[in-house]
Specification:
Layout lengths: L1 H13 L23 H4 L2 H8 L7 E5 L4 E7 L8 E7 L11 H12 L14 E5 L2 E6 L2 E6 L6 H26 L1
Antiparallel strand pairs: 1-2, 2-3, 3-6, 4-5, 5-6
Amino acid sequence: MWRITLLVTMLIALTLTGCNQAAPNDEGSLNQPLAIEPEQLISKEEAEEILGEAVKDGKKSEQPAVGQKICFYDLKDEDSAYFLQISISQTELMTNTDQTAEDIYMSLKEGLIETAEQKEIDGVGDEYFFGTPGLHILKSGYYLCIAAGNTNDDRVQGYLEQAGALAVKNLENILDEAKK
């Protein structure tokens, strides 16, 4: 499971070069980016609802170079092959890059889209695709990646569809609230 996370992180890191810094606002101070946490997109309780089983507390990690924050929910049943992982890459949080979260999404889409059968899902982002390790979503400049296990498993496909729609809905709510 962690190998999938490492693979995606390495793919993202390989696409990056350059340097990015926060811009000063009209008052001369640096703009504070909105840092969205992955558990805001899918909470532990929501992960349990999607998977239909109890999950352990989320394990968090991040890759600052690509503005990526990850939360991994493993099932309490040690014998289960399922899990739920949500990651979000945010341009405003990136260090050492001239690229955006959208650039990373597009690069990965180009490299991965042929690795899995594509299907349509209602309510999932501005665009999306299936590829290792699961469902990749672009929404309002944010790049989300959701994994739940073997993508050839019909149950996993269902988990990805539910989690994708929920993550996008929660992201929209966060962005709407930030505008107020």
